[in-house]
Each structure stands twice: as C-alpha cells, then as structure tokens.
Amino acid sequence: MTVRAGALLVLLYAMLFALFSVTLGVPAPAKTTTDAIVVITGGSGRIEQGIRRLAAHRASRMLIAGADPSVTKRDLARRLGGRQALLDCCVDLGSESVDTRSNAEEAKRWLDAHGYRSVTLVTSDWHMRRASYEFRSQLGRRYDITFDAVRTEPNLMTLFAEYNKYLLRRMAVWLDV
Q1: Segment 147-166 mean pLDDT
Q2: If you average pLDDT over residues 13-40, what whole number do you get?
Q3: Of 22, 53, 82, whose CA–CA distance to 63 is shortest?
Q4: For residue 177, what pLDDT is reported?
Q5: How distant, in Å, are the alpha carbons of 4, 24, 107, 154 from that of 136?
Q6: Are strands 118-124 and 91-94 parallel, antiparallel or unpaired?
Q7: Domain extents in the chain
Q8: Res. 176 pLDDT band, cuts 50 70 90
Q9: 10 pairs with which residues across the strands?
Q10: Is residue 82's pLDDT more than 90?
C-alpha cells in the first residue's frame, strides 16, 4: 500500500510538472492600461518590456523591484540605449527586495505610497505563476493586477527549479511556516 501511495504521489508530481511547463505566463494585451508597472529584476527582457509599456503610456510610473543598490538610472539609460528622460521622470529603483516574496512586499509599499490601485506585473513567463501567487497574497483584492509575462525559452532545469520553488512556497503558506 505504501509503495502504491508513493507511486501515486510521484505520478501526480510529474503530471503537475508537465502541466506547469505547458501553461507558462503570457504577455498582457498591448492596449492594457494600469496606474503603474512593477518589473521584477532577474531575467532578460523584463525591464525592456516594462519600459516599452511605460513609453506607450500604458501606466504613469514604474518600479523596478529588486534592483541592485549600485545600479543607477544612468546605468539603465546606457543599457536601454537612451530613455534618460523617461527614467528620470517615471521610474523608481527599488533595492529593498531580494526574492519574489520581498518583491511583492516592496511593491505593496510603493503602490500604497503612490495611491495606485491597478498594476501591471512584468516578469518572465516561467516565473509568473510564483510571482502572481506572491503578489496576490501580498496585495489581496484591493489591487487590480495585470500579469505581463516576458516570453522566454526556459530549459528543463529552469522549469524544474521554478516548479519546485512554487510548490515549496505554496506548502510553506499552507503549513503557516
């Protein structure tokens, strides 16, 4: 009986991993408008996607959560090939967070400070499920959240690691640890 239960758990784990792998986050519709944008650092194309939305007037301000404290707006302007005026007027660099959960906490403080009620969350497609879970947990229903995933080509190890992080976080919340 124990072997069968173990086999069932392994099968369930594998099936859910397969489902996780084929249902990655998707980009938000191009015309979506919110009060603000929050970009979580840590993956290529995230900041660029947020800047494109901001430049297209899809939000009035953007937070880059989890930015290295040594990074400046001038550094970003060089990386982005200009955009200094947009960065100066409308982008805040948040360097308080170190992981997805603290990204959500930092974003909540920033959203509250500005009085925003709707936000576009930008992160990689493979990271969106865990990020959306953390942001929903932190922001609750007071905020309208639009999820905007940057398309990537994640390898199997990236997907496997992210799936396990997601499961572990869900279990930690469920167990209240």
Answers
A1: 96
A2: 95
A3: 53
A4: 78
A5: 36, 17, 12, 24
A6: unpaired
A7: 25-175
A8: confident
A9: none
A10: no
Which long-range contacts does 151-159 make (Cβ < 8 Å, 24+ apart)? Answer: 151/26, 151/27, 151/45, 151/125, 152/43, 152/44, 152/45, 152/124, 152/125, 152/126, 154/24, 154/124, 154/125, 154/126, 158/126, 159/17, 159/20, 159/21, 159/126
Rounded to an integer, the average pLDDT of 128-150 is: 95
* Nearest of 138, 152, 162 to residue 38 by alpha carbon: 138
Q: Distance of alpha carbon 69 from its chain centroid, rounded?
A: 19
Residue 38's nearest CA partner among 56, 60, 68 is 60
Residue that has been written with the tokens 């991993």 in this structure: 17
111-115 long-range contacts (CB < 8 A, ≥24 apart) are 111/36, 111/38, 111/139, 111/143, 114/35, 114/36, 114/61
Provide the pLDDT for residue 131. 97
Say yes or no to pLDDT of 81 above 90: no
pLDDT of residue 1: 74
- The fold adopted by the segment(s) 25-175 is Rossmann fold (3.40.50)
Query: CA-to-CA distance for 79 and 41, rounded, in angstroms?
Result: 14
Calpha distance 106→16 (Å, rounded): 30
pLDDT category of residue 95 using cuts at 50, 70 and 90: very high
Gap between the Cα atoms of 23 and 62, Å rounded: 27
